[in-house]
Amino acid sequence: MNRLVSAAATAVVAAIGLGTVLPAAAQFQKPEDAVKYRKAAMTVMATHFGRIAAMANGKAPFDPAAAQANAELVAVLSKLPFAGFIEGTSSGDTKAKSEIWSEPDKFKAGASKMQEDVAKLNVAARTGNLEQIKAAVGDVGKSCKSCHDNYRKE
Ligand code: ASC
């Protein structure tokens, strides 16, 4: 009995947690709200990734604490945009290609790959080792580019 209650409680907590990150049309009032949300999330993510990339590319002085803080933000932010790619949001003010909805498994795999690479960048940033950060930045950049090439219109 107790085990059952505890399992049910765990399921409820998990469902609430997932509800904050998984696609669900009910989370947006209008389709254009979902489009705005995903674009905003991408913009903020790109801003914080860009700060680490600038250090990795020698365009900004290497500041290990700043790299770590930005990598932590990117790790969280990388989970956000995909909740905005709900059904009925392939048109309007968006560069999203229809393939996002016609090959959802491939799109999700690309999102997961990016999130894994970002998690590795977060680990690398914690070492404070610029060479490791450079390598991890390169991998994240590749996973961003791969999805943009496949799923973003020019
Ligand atoms: C960035 C950014 C992207 C990726 C991509 C990598 O900094 O905003 O979309 O890197 O340009 O090729």
What report would you give on this structure?
- This protein is mostly helical and 154 residues long.
- The protein has helices at 2-19, 31-56, 64-77, 99-102, 104-127, 130-151.
- 70% of the residues lie in helices and 0% in strands.
- Mean pLDDT is 90; it is low at 9-17.
- The chain starts with a helix and ends with a helix.
- Helix 2 (31-56) runs antiparallel to helix 6 (130-151) and helix 3 packs antiparallel against helix 5 (104-127).
- The longest helix is centred in the first third of the chain and has 26 residues, at 31-56.
- It binds ascorbic acid (ASC).
- Ascorbic acid binds at residues 46, 49-50, 53, 141, 144-145, 148.
Topology at a glance:
Layout: H1 2-19, H2 31-56, H3 64-77, H4 99-102, H5 104-127, H6 130-151
Helix pairs in contact: 2-3, 2-6, 3-5, 5-6
Give the topology string: H per helix, E per strand: HHHHHH
Cofactors, ions, other ligands? ascorbic acid
Number of strands: 0
What portion of the residues fall into strands of 2 or more residues? under 5%
For the biggest sheet, the summary is:
none
Structural class assignment: mainly alpha
- Give the termini distance in whole angstroms: 57 Å
Which bin fits the share of residues in helices? over 70%
Shape: elongated
Mean pLDDT score: 90
Uncertain residue ranges: 9-17
Number of helical regions? 6
Any idea what the radius of gyration is?
A: 18 Å
